[in-house]
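re: ur question from earlier - yeah i can do the single chain one, its not a big deal. heres the input i used so u can compare w yours
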Amino acid sequence: MNLQTISALIPGFAGSYIDPGTGSMLFTVLLSIIGAGVYSVRVFANKLMAGAGRRKKADKNRIPFVIFSDNKRYWNIFEPILRIFEQRGHDVLYLTASEDDPAFSCGLTNVKAEYLGEGTKMFSRLNSLNADIVLSTTPGLDVYQWKRSPDAGCYVHIPHAASEVVLYRMFGLDYYDTVLLSGEYQMKDIRALEQLRSLPEKDLHLIGIPYMDEMAKRLAEAGEAPEHERTVLLAPSWGKSAIFSVYGGKIIDVLLKTGYHVIVRPHPQSFTAEKDLLEKIMKEYPESEQLEWNRDRDNFEVLRRSDILISDFSGVIFDFTLIYDKPVIYTDPQIDLAPYDAWWLDTPLWTVSALPRLGMRLDEENMQDLRSLIDSCLQDPRFAEGRRQVKDETWAYRGEGAVRAADILEAKYAEISGKEDVQA
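and the output i got, formated as tokens:
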């Protein structure tokens, strides 16, 4: 299908010039419309065949609960739920794309961890699952290589950060059945996309954020960090709109001039996707008494001993502000929304309203005044009130996330399997 065909199919574009970028987007949009129609038909057919979601014949090889994790760093998302399942006696098959995933040494007797391998081998296993429930934090189901298995009952998504789900790549959640969310704004965005794309309504549940519950509990037990000099944590994301791509090492240079202690914690993906850039900056700014580079797998301690965070669009912003109750300085990355689900919506991103309440914006013009920005953020009481507001909007049912998630997964399993004696 070429661009002329697409332009004829989409009102308002017939006979118009379409540049390659717009054409690529239109092609994607058209595919989504076709895909949504096919998906709707398939959902209806599956319900007819399955008798409203219940199997007529028991299958002894069918796995009740499967978790798929595409990276070991998402173990903290699933661990709280798995511990509830351990208490309730549910066995779980944990499929991971990381050979050294913490699941292999977690000590949970109900978890059977399996390394998937890479490429075709991994997707072959995922695409042929015989399971009742499949839980994952990975978007893009049925969009790229990861396909819905015809023998899987219900696909459940749980986000890995307290922010927009519409900042996934386009169609990120379209083909999930159930989504576990933390804020009303997320539900509104998903419902809006479903209407725009004529998709069946997903089963949406507000549960909160299990991993944040665990971090908050851990922080309460650890207490305040030992007395230390004022410490600034620079934790950029990665990609062309991230801090290092936009400012390079200049931002570290300005931070060192503040006289404050500086910790730099790059996104793990930076060490792979932008290795040359990162190595160049690390060479220009080696560790010293004032500067340290942090690559701890667990970010708990580095967040605990930092007084303020500088970041861009990384999810760590919400971990830092909502759990540790500290301010941030954020950059305006000017993200091109074209590849993301947010492109479809005419409402502003929730994050756009949240960030100014959490701290102050950094740009090229005020970078030389970074010390003043840091001091203002730490002293201005309006940011403490802003953190309270944002927490209420994006972190429902604080302290209850894992239990609520487990309850929903059990209920889904009972619905699909026809077993009424599942604990709820």
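The first strand starts at residue 63 and ends at 69. not sure if urs matches, ping me
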